[in-house]
Design a protein that fits this description.
By secondary structure, this protein is an alpha+beta fold. Helices cover 37% and strands 15% of the residues. The strands form 11 sheets. It has a 6-stranded mixed β-sheet with strand order 2-1-3-6-7-8, sandwiched between helices. The two termini are 40 Å apart. The longest helix has 37 residues. Helix 12 crosses helix 17 and helix 21 runs parallel beside helix 24.
Length: 1500
C-alpha cells in the first residue's frame, strides 16, 4: 500500500509549535519562534493548507511501480542502482558550500562620536530655510544645547541597543582628539579580537578634508581640529565597522581605503623581514662551533637592530605616538587586514552634501540605520496618495518590533524578509555570508542600509559602503514592501480610533510562498535560484505558515544537493535545528525528511545534533513501529550519520538505547528499514568497543547472521558490513575470539551469493578477520604454498616418467594421498584443517571470482599475507630433504614450461631457484614454471586439487583490456615474461581439477564455545549451524551427512563441501598454454623475489580493505525521493521514449499482420536478406535477434560475442565474454525487450555473465556475474558439462543446468533478489541439453541427452517439480520450445534424428509427430507464426509449418552461381517478424525473410 506525506487540517490544529527561542548569537535574524496565533492566523492557516500537496516518497512510488509491473512483460531487469556501479560511490561528490562561518564575529563595543556643536553651523555648509534640524528624532532647538546634546547621545545609544543590547556603549559628545583616541584605545583593548563599531556624526563640523581628515574640537570649542583617518585606523584596529554620517563622507571612504592598502603593504613587508631574520637566527644556531659567544652576541644585536628598524619603518605618522605598541600587538598577525576586516558605511559620496528636507531628520542616514520602520513609513507617506495620515499617527502605530502579531511587529518581520531576499538575490554568496550571517549587528545595519540607499537616493544622495554593494534601490521586492506598508497604514486610523479593532494581517508571506511553489513547479538547477528562499526561513518563525513552508522547503531540497547547498547558505540550519525541540507530531515527517537531505550532503552537522540533543528526536521516531516505514528509514539514516566517525554521537546513541530499538525492527517487512537499521548499528559499533560488547550481549551477531540469506541484496550486503565491523578488538577475550571466528565461518554462505555487491563486502569483512589474526593466516598460507611446491615437483617428475615410458596410459599416477601419507609430518599440526585454513581457502576461492571488483580485493589479501612469508621458514622446511629424484633428463623435453604469471615457483624468468639433493635446476633449457598442470588427452585425465598461488594471483590473459570493458575490468595482471608453455609428444599441458585429496581431519562442530586447533575443531556458530560429530567432510563428496536446521546451514554445508571437493578452490582459472618460442635465458631466482613479484602485481596496498558501501547507500538520500509532479514531455528523453514506444507497437502490429498472412497463405520461399561472416573463422554457435532494433547478437564456439546490424550487414561491436581459457559459451539470451537491453551468457566454466551497453566498447560493462553452481569448482580444462541457460523475462528468473559432479539438477536464480531460489532434481543421470519456459506461466520444459523431455512446474518444490515425462524420443534433444502461438503450454521438441513432436500439457504422449528424414543439428520454432526451422550438418535448412508441410528448403546462398551453404550450426527466428537467422560452421551468417510484404528497408 502506498504511503505518503499527508498533511491534514486536523494535524495543523495539533501543531503546538516551539517554546524555545533560537540563540541570539545566531546571525540569521532569528529572535524567537512564537507559538501564539490569533484567530486570523488560524483562518489563514487553513487557507494555506489548501495549497499543500500530498508528497509520496520515491521509495513508496517505486514499490507501487513494482507492484503494478508484476504482470508486465516489459518490466526491465538489472536496472537497480547497484547494477549501475556495483555499489561504488561516485568519486565526483557534490562540493559542499562554505555555509558555516569560520569565525563568528560579534560587535562587543560601540563608540558614538557626535560632533554637533548645537547652535553653530559649520562654515562650509550653507543651509536652507527651513532646514532639517532633528537629530535622532529630537529637535535640539527645544532644549539648551548641552542638555540637547546629552539627550541626542542617549537616544542614539538606545536606538543601537535595539539591535545589539549586550554591546558596550560609550559616548563621546563634541570630543577632542585626545578624547577620541582614549575612547578608541579603550574599546579596542576591551574588545580584543572582536569587532568595534565607530559611529561618527559630523553635522556640526566642516566636511572631511582632501588630506584624509575629519574634524573634532579643541577643549574650548574655539577651533576645529583635524583628526587623521590614518590615526583613527591605528586606534581602532581590526576588525571594525565605521559609520560616517556627514557631508562628503565619500572622501573618508577613499582615504580610508588608501591608508588601509598602505598599511597592508607595510605589514607584508614587515612580515617578510621577520621571516628573513628568523632564518638568519636559525642558520646561526645551526652553524659550526667555531663561532665564539661574542660573535653570537654581536649577531643577536644586529638582528635586534634590524627588527627595530623594520618596526620604525612601519610608523609613518608622527601623530601615532605611543600607539605603536598597541598597533603592533593587534596588527602583528599576518591574518589581519584593514581592507578585509573593516566595514564602512557612508551617508553620501565625496561631492555630495546631506539632504536638508525639513520633513525628515537631519541625520536621515542614521535614522535609516537605526530606526528603519519609522523612517520608511514617513518616507512612504510622502510619496503616497494616501490622505489623512499625519506624522504623529505614524509615530503611534500600535505594537512593538518583537511581536509579529502587532502591526509594527509584522512590518518589521516583512521588512527583514524583504531586505534579506534582496541581499540574497543581489550579492555574491561569500559577501552575503559575511555581511548578513556573520555578525548580528552588522546584519541589521546592512539590512537597514539597503533602505537607506533607497531613501537617500530619492534625496539625491548616494550612500557608499565598503565592501561596495551593487545598486538595490530599484529591486522588485521593494514593491512588495510598499504594498505591505500600504495595507497597514490604511488600517491605521481605525486602529488608533478603536483599540479593540481587529488588525488584518498582510498576505505577504502567503503570496510569497505561492510564488515559491510556482518556482518549484518549473525551476531547476540550470535556472536562477528561487528569490523567495530567504522568505521561507522567515515564515518558519510563524506557526500559521510553518507546515506549508517546511513542505515547500522539503520539495526544494529534494531537487538535489545544489538545492541543499543553497538552503544552508541562506541560513536554514539553525531554524531546523531548533525545530527538533518541537513536540508537534505533524512536523515530524517533513522534519525527518529535511534532516535526511541535509545530512546526505553535509555530514559535519552531526556534532550540532548531538550538542542540541537532536539524536533523541530521531530515536523517538525510530522507536515507534506505527510510524511509516519511510520515516523510520530516514531516521535510521540520520542516526547512522550521527554515529559515523563520531565518538560523541556513538556514545549518545548507545546511551539512548538505539541498539535494542534497531534489533527489534530487523524483521520489518520493508527492506529499506531492515537495511538502514543494520547500517545504523554498524556505524554505532564501528571501532567502538563498548558498543560491540553491548551488541554481543544483545546477541546482535546471531540476529544479523539470519539476514545473510535475506531476499534483498542490499540487506544482505548491510548484514555483511555490520558483521565485519563487529570483528576486531578481541585481544585477550576468548569469548570474542570464538564469536569472531564463528562469524567468519558463517559468512562463507555469501560465497554462493549471486550479487557481486554482496560478495565484495564479504571480502572486505574477511580482510578484517585476517588483520585480527594475521599470524595464524600467515602460517596456514605458508603450508599451502609449501604443499604447492611439493605437488609441482611431483608433477614434473611424473611428466618426465611419462616421456620416458612413451606409454602414458601405462604409467601409474603418483597418488597425492600416498605422498601425503609418506610425509605426514608436513601437516602434523593440522592447521590447514583449522578455522583459519577454511577461511584462507575461502579467500583463495574469491581470488578467482568472476567479478573483478571481488577478485581484486581478495587478491590484495593474498598479497599482504604473501609479503610476510619469511625466506628462512620456507627453506628450512623438510620438504626439500624428502624430495629425491633427478631432473637432468628434463633438458630435452621441458623447454620453458611456465605459466603466464609469477608465483611461488615462478620468478621473472620462471626458474625454480632451489637445489634439491644436488640436482640444480638452474638451466636455460630447464625452466620449471609454477605447476599444478596435469596431462589431459583422449586416453587419460589426471586431476589435482592443490592450491596454486600463481594461478590465483594472475588473471586470465585472454580477458579484454580495460578500454574494452569500460571501468569494470582492471589491467591484466601478468609478469614480465610472456605466456610460454611446452608440448610433450604432441600432448597439450592443461590444468585440471582433482577431487582425490582426502582430508583425515574431521570437523566436529558442536554448540559450545571451545575452539581448538587440533584434529577435531569444535566450532560454535550460535543457532545457525549444527554439524554433528562424525560427519566427515571429504573431497569425494561421499558420506557428507551435514545436519542443519535452516537454509543458512544448508548453504554453509554446500560451501564447506565445495572446499573439500577442491582444496582451496584457487585453481579455477588458468592461462592457456602455448608452444614456447624460446627458452628463458636467466639464472634461477630466489623464492623471496618470487614473493615480491607476486606482491607487485596485485592491487590495493592497504592492510585492511575499506568498504564504501555505506557511502554508496547514503547517495540514495541525495537523489530526488518525492513523487515527480509529472513527466517533462518536451525533454529529449521523453520524446525518444515516446518514439520508441510507438515504433515498438508498430513492429508488433505489423508482425501480427504478417503472421495472419502466413496462416492464410503460407510463404513459398524465404528470400536471403543479408549475408555476412565472422572474421575469426570460428563456427557460429548462437544467434539472438533484438525484438525491435535491427540488431543480431552472434556468439562463436569459444568466447567471442559480436553485434551486427543485419540491415546493412555491418558489425557494430565485438567483445570477449571473459570465460576461462579452455571453456566456451554454451548459452546466450537477450534480457529486457525494451530499454535497457542486455546480454546474458552462460559458459561451461560455470559462470553466468550479464553485459550492458553491448552496442559499443565505450558503453560495454559487466553488470553482474556469478557461478551457477558455486559449490563445484572448475577449471578451464575441467568444465561443467554444457551449462544450459534459459531466461524467463516475465518474472526475472534464470534457469540453469549442467553436468555437475553430483546428480544433474536445474537451479533457478531470481535476478531481482539475486538468490538461488530453487533446486529442481531431474531424476535422471542424463544431462539437460535445452530448456524453454511458458511465457507468463509457471511451467518450463527441458530436453535431455537420452531423448527424454520433461515438463516442470516451478511452483512445486524439490524433486516433485516434474509434472510430466515424455519418453517417445530416442535420441539427443536438440531444442525444445513452448511457443505463444500454441498457448504457451504445448511443448515442441526436436531430436537429433530429425523427429519433431508436439506435446500437450498434462499428456504424456505426443499429439503430433513430424518425421524429418534428415539428421538435424539445430532447431527453432517461431514464437507467433506456425513455422519450424531445422538446420542440418548436411548443408541445408528446412522450414516447415506445424502440420509438417515443407515451406521451403535452403541449400544455396541467393544470387547467380550462389554457393552451397555450410554445415548449419544454429538457427533462430526473430521474436516478432518473419525473419530467420542461420549460422554455419564456416562462420557465415545468413538472414532470411519470409514475409514478402514486409518493409525490410524501413529505418526505424
Amino acid at each position: 500500500m502506498d504511503k505518503s506525506y499527508n498533511f491534514s487540517s486536523s494535524n495543523l490544529a495539533n501543531s503546538s509549535g516551539l517554546h524555545n527561542s533560537i540563540n541570539s548569537n545566531n546571525v540569521n535574524g532569528v529572535n524567537n519562534i512564537n507559538n501564539n496565533n490569533n484567530n486570523n492566523n488560524n483562518n489563514e492557516n487553513v487557507n494555506d493548507h489548501n495549497n499543500v500537496s500530498n508528497i509520496n516518497t520515491h521509495q513508496q512510488t517505486k514499490k507501487k511501480e513494482k507492484y503494478n509491473n508484476n504482470n508486465n512483460k516489459n518490466k526491465p531487469f538489472f536496472g537497480e542502482e547497484r547494477h549501475k556501479d556495483n555499489a561504488t560511490p561516485d568519486v565526483q561528490k557534490t562540493k559542499i558550500a562554505k555555509w558555516r562561518m569560520r569565525e563568528r564575529m560579534k560587535t562587543v563595543s560601540v563608540a558614538l562620536v557626535l560632533c554637533l556643536n548645537i547652535g553653530v553651523d559649520p562654515p562650509d555648509v550653507i543651509k536652507t530655510f527651513p532646514c532639517a534640524r532633528m537629530e535622532c528624532w529630537f529637535d535640539p532647538s527645544t532644549q539648551p544645547p548641552q542638555k540637547a546634546l546629552d539627550l541626542i547621545g542617549k537616544t542614539l545609544q538606545a536606538q543601537y541597543e535595539k539591535w545589539q543590547s549586550k554591546a558596550r556603549y560609550k559616548q563621546s559628545l563634541d570630543p577632542t582628539v585626545e578624547e577620541v583616541k582614549k575612547l578608541c584605545l579603550s574599546l579596542r583593548r576591551n574588545a580584543k579580537d572582536e569587532r568595534v563599531l565607530f559611529h561618527y556624526n559630523g553635522h556640526g563640523v566642516p566636511k572631511p578634508t582632501t588630506n584624509g581628515e575629519i574634524w573634532v574640537f579643541n577643549r574650548n570649542f574655539t577651533q576645529y581640529i583635524p583628526l587623521s583617518i590614518y590615526e583613527l585606523q591605528t586606534w581602532m584596529g581590526t576588525p571594525s565597522i565605521y559609520v560616517f554620517d556627514c557631508s562628503a563622507a565619500g572622501l573618508i571612504i577613499n582615504w580610508f581605503n588608501q591608508f588601509a592598502e598602505q598599511r597592508d603593504k607595510e605589514l607584508e613587508r614587515f612580515s617578510g623581514n621577520n621571516q628573513i631574520n628568523n632564518q638568519n637566527n636559525n642558520n646561526n644556531t645551526n652553524s659550526t662551533n667555531g663561532n665564539t659567544n661574542q660573535q653570537q652576541q654581536q649577531q643577536q644585536q644586529n638582528n635586534n637592530s634590524n627588527n627595530n628598524s623594520s618596526n620604525n619603518s612601519n610608523t609613518n605618522s608622527p601623530n601615532m605616538g605611543s600607539s605603536n605598541s598597541v598597533n603592533n600587538n593587534q596588527s602583528g598577525s599576518s591574518s589581519s587586514s584593514h581592507q578585509r576586516d573593516c566595514i564602512l558605511l557612508a551617508a553620501c559620496s565625496a561631492n555630495e552634501i546631506l539632504p536638508m528636507n525639513p520633513d525628515f531628520p537631519a541625520d536621515m542616514f542614521t535614522a535609516c540605520l537605526t530606526t528603519p520602520i519609522r523612517i520608511a513609513l514617513r518616507w512612504f507617506c510622502s510619496h503616497s496618495i494616501l490622505t489623512g495620515i499625519t506624522a504623529d499617527m505614524l509615530d503611534k502605530i500600535p505594537g512593538n518590533l518583537s511581536s509579529r502579531r502587532t502591526p509594527l511587529g509584522e512590518l518589521n518581520w516583512i521588512f527583514t524578509a524583504v531586505t534579506d531576499t534582496i541581499a540574497w538575490n543581489v550579492l555574491p554568496r561569500h559577501l552575503f555570508q559575511k555581511l548578513f550571517r556573520q555578525d548580528l549587528l552588522v546584519a541589521s545595519l546592512f539590512r537597514n542600509y539597503l533602505l537607506a540607499e533607497r531613501i537617500m537616493r530619492s534625496a539625491n544622495c548616494t550612500p557608499i559602503s565598503c565592501p561596495r554593494l551593487p545598486p538595490t534601490y530599484q529591486h522588485a521586492m521593494w514593491q512588495a514592501w510598499d504594498l505591505a506598508v500600504d495595507l497597514v497604514i490604511s488600517q491605521l486610523p481605525t486602529l488608533l480610533a478603536d483599540p479593540n479593532a481587529e488588525f488584518k494581517s498582510s498576505p505577504f508571506f502567503s503570496e510569497q510562498l505561492t510564488a515559491f511553489e510556482v518556482w518549484l513547479e518549473f525551476g531547476s538547477e540550470h535556472k536562477d535560484p528561487p528569490a523567495q528562499l530567504p522568505i521561507v526561513l522567515q515564515v518558519l518563525l510563524s506557526q500559521a505558515h510553518r507546515l506549508r513552508a517546511l513542505v515547500l522547503l522539503g520539495k526544494f531540497l529534494d531537487l538535489g544537493p545544489w538545492a541543499v547547498n543553497l538552503a544552508l547558505c541562506v541560513g536554514i540550519f539553525p531554524y531546523v535545528l531548533k525545530l527538533l525541540q518541537s513536540p508537534a507530531g505533524d512536523l515530524r515527517h517533513i522534519l525527518v525528511f529535511i534532516w535526511a537531505k541535509i545530512l546526505a550532503l553535509d555530514k559535519s552537522c552531526q556534532l550540532d545534533l548531538v550538542k542540541e540533543n537532536g539524536h533523541a528526536y530521531f530515536i523517538s521516531v525510530l522507536s515507534s513501529p506505527q510510524i511509516p516505514a519511510d520515516q523510520r528509514t530516514m531516521s535510521a539514516f540520520v542516526l547512522s550519520t550521527i554515529c559515523n566517525n563520531c565518538r560523541p554521537g556513538q556514545n549518545a546513541c548507545l546511551i539512548g538505547n538505539l541498539l535494542p530499538i534497531c534489533l527489534s525492527q530487523l524483521n520489518d517487512p520493508d527492506p529499506m528499514v531492515r537495511r538502514w537499521m543494520i547500517l545504523c548499528m554498524a556505524k554505532m559499533w564501528e571501532n567502538f568497543e563498548e558498543a560491540k560488547w553491548a551488541a554481543i550481549k544483545e546477541n546482535a551477531h546471531e540476529k544479523l547472521c539470519l539476514l545473510l540469506t535475506d531476499v534483498s541484496p542490499e540487506v544482505r550486503a548491510s548484514a555483511v558490513v555490520a558483521l565485519g565491523e563487529l570483528i576486531g578488538g578481541a585481544e585477550g577475550s576468548e569469548q570474542r575470539t570464538n564469536i569472531e571466528l564463528n562469524l567468519a565461518l558463517t559468512l562463507a554462505v555469501i560465497t554462493a551469493d549471486c550479487s557481486p555487491m554482496v560478495r565484495k563486502e564479504l571480502v572486505i569483512s574477511l580482510s578484517r578477520i585476517v588483520s585480527s589474526y594475521e599470524s595464524n593466516f600467515v602460517q596456514v598460507a605458508q603450508e599451502i604454498a609449501q604443499e604447492e611446491r611439493l605437488r609441482a615437483v611431483l608433477e614434473a617428475k611424473r611428466l618426465e616418467e611419462l616421456r620416458k615410458s612413451k606409454k602414458r596410459a601405462s604409467v601409474p599416477k603418483i597418488s597425492d594421498a600416498d605422498h601425503l601419507n609418506n610425509n605426514s609430518d608436513l601437516y602434523g599440526n593440522g592447521s590447514q584443517s583449522s578455522v583459519y585454513g577454511c577461511l584462507w581457502k575461502i579467500i583463495l576461492n574469491l581470488c578467482t571470482d568472476p567479478f573483478d571488483q571481488v577478485a581484486n580485493r581478495a587478491q590484495s589479501i593474498v598479497k599482504r599475507i604473501s609479503s610476510k612469508f619469511s625466506m628462512e621458514e620456507l627453506m628450512s622446511h623438510n620438504l626439500i630433504n624428502r624430495t629425491n629424484f633427478n631432473f637432468n633428463n628434463l633438458n630435452g623435453s621441458m623447454n620453458g614450461l611456465n605459466s603466464s604469471g609469477s608465483g611461488f615457483l615462478n620468478g621473472s624468468n620462471g626458474n625454480l631457484g632451489a637445489s634439491m639433493n644436488g640436482n640444480n635446476l638452474n638451466s636455460s633449457n630447464n625452466n620449471l614454471g609454477s605447476s599444478g598442470f596435469g596431462l589431459n588427452n583422449s586416453n587419460s585425465s589426471i586431476r589435482n586439487t592443490f592450491v596454486n598461488i600463481s594461478r590465483i594471483t594472475n588473471r586470465d590473459p585472454r580477458s579484454p583490456t580495460k578500454t574494452k570493458l569500460g571501468s569494470q575490468r582492471s589491467p591484466i595482471l601478468t609478469s614480465s615474461t610472456n605466456n610460454v608453455g611446452t608440448n610433450l609428444n604432441g600432448n597439450q599441458l592443461n590444468l585440471n581439477n582433482n577431487n582425490n585429496n582426502n582430508n583425515n581431519n574431521n570437523n566436529n562442530n558442536n554448540n559450545n564455545n571451545n575452539n581448538n586447533n587440533n584434529n577435531n575443531n569444535n566450532i560454535n556458530n550460535g543457532n545457525n549451524i549444527n554439524i554433528n560429530n562424525g560427519n566427515n567432510i571429504n573431497n569425494n563428496g561421499n558420506g557428507n551427512n551435514i545436519n542443519n536446521n535452516n537454509g543458512l546451514g544448508n548453504q554453509l554445508a554446500n560451501t564447506f563441501q565445495s572446499l573439500s571437493l577442491s582444496s582451496g578452490l584457487g585453481g579455477n582459472k588458468t592461462n592457456k598454454m602455448s608452444q614456447s618460442t624460446s627458452s628463458m635465458n636467466s639464472s634461477s631466482q630466489s623464492l623471496q623475489n618470487d614473493f615480491l613479484m607476486v606482491s607487485d602485481l596485485m592491487p590495493f596496498e592497504e592492510d585492511e580493505l575499506y568498504s564504501d558501501y555505506y557511502e554508496w547507500s547514503c547517495n540514495y538520500f541525495s537523489k530526488p525521493m518525492m513523487q515527480s509532479t509529472g513527466e517533462d514531455f518536451e525533454s529529449f528523453e521523453s520524446i525518444e521514449k515516446k518514439w520508441k514506444r510507438q515504433r515498438n507497437e508498430m513492429i508488433i502490429q505489423e508482425s501480427k499482420e504478417a503472421v495472419q498472412n502466413i496462416i492464410q497463405q503460407p510463404p513459398k520461399s524465404f528470400s536471403q536478406m543479408t549475408i555476412f561472416a565472422e572474421p575469426n573463422g570460428q563456427p557460429i554457435s548462437h544467434l539472438q535477434f533484438h525484438p525491435f532494433d535491427n540488431i543480431l547478437v552472434v556468439s562463436d564456439g569459444l568466447e567471442n560475442i559480436s553485434v551486427w546490424n543485419y540491415d546493412d550487414g555491418q558489425r557494430i561491436n565485438t567483445f570477449n565474454n571473459c570465460n576461462m581459457s579452455g571453456t566456451r559459451i554454451t548459452s546466450m539470451k537477450l534480457v529486457n525487450d525494451y530499454d535497457p537491453s542486455m546480454i546474458i551468457t552462460a559458459a561451461d566454466d560455470g559462470v553466468v555473465r550479464i553485459w550492458r551497453g553491448y552496442e559499443s566498447n565505450e558503453t560495454l560493462k559487466m553488470v553482474s556475474s556469478w557461478r551457477a553452481f558455486p559449490e563445484f569448482a572448475t577449471t578451464g580444462n575441467d568444465p561443467i558439462g554444457r551449462l544450459v541457460l534459459d531466461w524467463k523475462g516475465d518474472s526475472g528468473l534464470v534457469l540453469v543446468s549442467g553436468e555437475t559432479p553430483d546428480s544433474p539438477k536445474i537451479r533457478i536464480w531470481d535476478v531481482e533478489r539475486e538468490l538461488g531460489v530453487q533446486d529442481i532434481f531431474i531424476g535422471t543421470e542424463s544431462v539437460v541439453t535445452c530448456m524453454a519456459n511458458e511465457k507468463r506461466g509457471p511451467l518450463f520444459s527441458a530436453g535431455f541427452s537420452d531423448g527424454l523431455v520433461k515438463l516442470f512446474d516451478q511452483r512445486i518444490p524439490g524433486k516433485y517439480s516434474c509434472v510430466s515425462t515424455l519418453t517417445e524420443h530416442k535420441s539427443y534433444i536438440v531444442n525444445v520450445s513452448m511457443p505463444a502461438s500454441l498457448g504457451g503450454k504445448t511443448v515442441v521438441s526436436g531430436s537429433s534424428t530429425g523427429e519433431i513432436k508436439f506435446w500437450q500439457h498434462s499428456y504424456e504422449c505426443s499429439s503430433t509427430t513430424i518425421h524429418n528424414n534428415d539428421v538435424i543439428s539445430s532447431f527453432s520454432v517461431h514464437e507467433y507464426a506456425p513455422l519450424i526451422a531445422c538446420g542440418s550438418q548436411n548443408q541445408r535448412i528446412k522450414i516447415m509449418n506445424f502440420t509438417g508441410e515443407d515451406v521451403c528448403t535452403i541449400r544455396y546462398h541467393d544470387g547467380f552461381l550462389g554457393q552451397r551453404i555450410g554445415p548449419v550450426s544454429c538457427v533462430a527466428f526473430h521474436p516478432y517478424n518473419i525473419l530467420m537467422g542461420a549460422g554455419a560452421t564456416d562462420s557465415i551468417i545468413s538472414i532470411y525473410n519470409g514475409d514478402s510484404k514486409s518493409k525490410s528497408n524501413v529505418d526505424w
